[in-house]
Amino acid sequence: MELDKMDENDWKYHGEGNKSLVVSHVQHSQVLRLLKYPTEDAEHAHQTSEQAFKHIQNIVEFSKNVMKPLLGETCVHHGEAVKLPLDFLRQLSLKVQHERPESRCDKVMDTFSGCALCLPNLTQLSACRLSDRRPQLCIEIKPKCGFLPSSQLIMKEVKRRVCRFCMHQHFKIANGKWKRMSRYCPLDLFSGNKQRMYLTIKHLLEEPQNNLKIFKNGELIYGCEEVASCQQDLDALAHHLGPYFPTQDTDAPVNELIQAIVGTLLDSPGCDHAGDHWRAPPVDGCTYCEGSPLPCELLQNENHSLPKDCILHRILQAQMLDNLDIEGVYPLYKRVEQYLEEFPKERGKLQLDGPYNEKFLEKLKSCPAEDDGSIEYAVGKVHQYRVSMTAKDCSILIAFSPCGEDELLEPNLDLQTPKPRFTTSVSILDLDPKPYESIAHQYKLDSKIVNYYLWNTQANQNKPHAPATHVYLERDAQDCTLVFQAV
Questions:
Q1: Quick one: DSSP state of residue 63?
Q2: Tens-digit pLDDT profile for residues 205-214
Q3: Which of 156, 255, 397, 486 is the one with CA 20 to 30 A from 76?
């Protein structure tokens, strides 16, 4: 980028999450990730310029020095922290404002710090891999946590049987986040069983919420981030897929897309062998979730597992760094808090806020296997939990384009399917470090999700046909949540 020639008309709205907004270049395969602030804090944002740049630099270092060694050099793109002209950012903010979902407009784009994260546009294959301009498709999946916790420190037994995602669905429906329950279950995706994977991806297409998006030539064509409204048109999607899966059967394109996704997730073309020198200890627990809508005989068939080096296996290994669950990590977090009260100057040495370098990664690997009561053990497990949370919240991007009959492919990019053949690329995004302070919030949220799930399922069992409205009331030291749930 030539910073002195930045023009807002060269960029378009690409999407946004809770903490950042993304724009993509109209000609070049580049995106800019910009921080967001709550509307009420916008006037104070100019005071946080240095903090903003440090925050973005932390994202770069965490992706480069921690997640890359765990997930694979070619799968993780750490990007670069850049400083941009303030006038360009102000004009860009005005340009994209009308394209933003209403549900996201409670926050504004950072136009004060001039800081951004520059990344390749991974919804498109690199131009050097294609001999001509063929239609490109990209599927973004946020898989979430793929295993059930088995820690002896868990007090709520239901967590060993029902996954966090399935329980959280009940809580989100009750709070109006979504209108319909998703039938997707992460444990089905991570099962390695092609039939379970196929069915759960189909469920994800039927109700994508914010866990699935599909891009065509860099443009979002399927997926929804609007609160409480996510009815998708699978017929329209099938029409978009026509150039990739030519057939007379109207249902076939979607089915073939699902098969291509399953094959790519299991084969992980384009990813190198990395992280073999260090694997997370296995978590012994149930391999299926009782919240899954799939038939019991299919769920209980445990004759499948993920190939060792596929993309899902790598992500699962990073997720399994959390072998204590939040119920086991929270007391260790309190131990660290107590230590910092006595020795506040030690915070930097413990690297709770970075830097995320090789030394930080070494702390993950060298954490004692058993709790010896030391601050080193507590900090090590807290760091492992934070890395695990990043892996539980990451996104997988699968980009592919039809191959020409005579095209010479890079050996590791050729996904072999009966017809057609594709040039593919697999990447992992959304690898920001989770703040140390978020552990207290996660502990409270976990309790709310589990308690509501138990209350709701019990209410449904006791009064399955009662047309009454029940009230769920939860109190804790800091807030009170009132939820009206139709039963």
A1: I
A2: 999 998 999 9
A3: 255
Residue 394 pLDDT more than 80?
A: yes
Structure-block tokens of residue 232: 């998708």
- The first and second tokens of residue 343, run together, are 């020795």
Please state, in angstroms and rounded to a whole number, the distance separating the CA atoms of residues 349 and 63: 21
Convert the pLDDT of each residue in 324-365 to its tens digit: 999 999 999 999 999 999 999 999 999 999 999 999 999 888
Please give the Cα distance from 465 to 487 (Å, whole number): 8
Q: How far apart are CA 211 and CA 79, in angstroms?
A: 23
- H or E stretch covering 205: helix 194-206
CA-closest candidate to residue 357, choices 117, 115, 60: 60
Give all strands of the β-sheet with 212-216 in edge-to-edge order: 219-222, 212-216, 137-141, 395-402, 422-429, 414-415
Instruction: Please state, in angstroms and rounded to a whole number, the distance separating the CA atoms of residues 91 and 415.
Output: 42
Distances (CA, A) of 296 to 144, 301, 308, 341: 22, 9, 26, 51
| Residue 291 confidence (pLDDT) | 93
Both tokens assigned to 196? 């379970």
State the virtual CA torsion across 211, 276, 280, 194 in degrees, nearest 10: 40
Task: Give 457-475 pLDDT, tens digit per residue.
Answer: 888 777 655 443 444 444 4
Of the ranges 223-232, 371-380, 420-429, which one carries the lowest mean pLDDT score? 223-232
Residue 14 class from Cβ within 10 Å (0-12 exposed, 13-18 middle, 19+ buried)?
Answer: buried
**Local confidence band at 131 (pLDDT 50, 70, 90 cut-offs):** very low
Please give the single-letter amino acid code of residue 383: H
Q: Which residues of 266-279 are buried (b: 16+ CB within 10 A; e: fewer)?
A: bbbbbbeebbeeee
Cβ atoms of 200 and 188 within 8 Å: the answer is yes
The answer to whether the CB of 285 falls within 8 A of the CB of 160 is: yes
User: Which are the contacts of 290, defined by CB distance < 8 A and separation ≥ 6?
Assistant: 161, 162
Residue with tokens 């009959």: 405
Q: How confident is the model at residue 480 (pLDDT cuts 50, 70, 90)?
A: very low
Other beta carbons within 10 angstroms of residue 421's beta carbon come to: 17
8 Å CB contact between 186 and 146: yes
Who's near 108: CB < 8 A, 6+ residues apart? 36, 37, 39, 42, 93
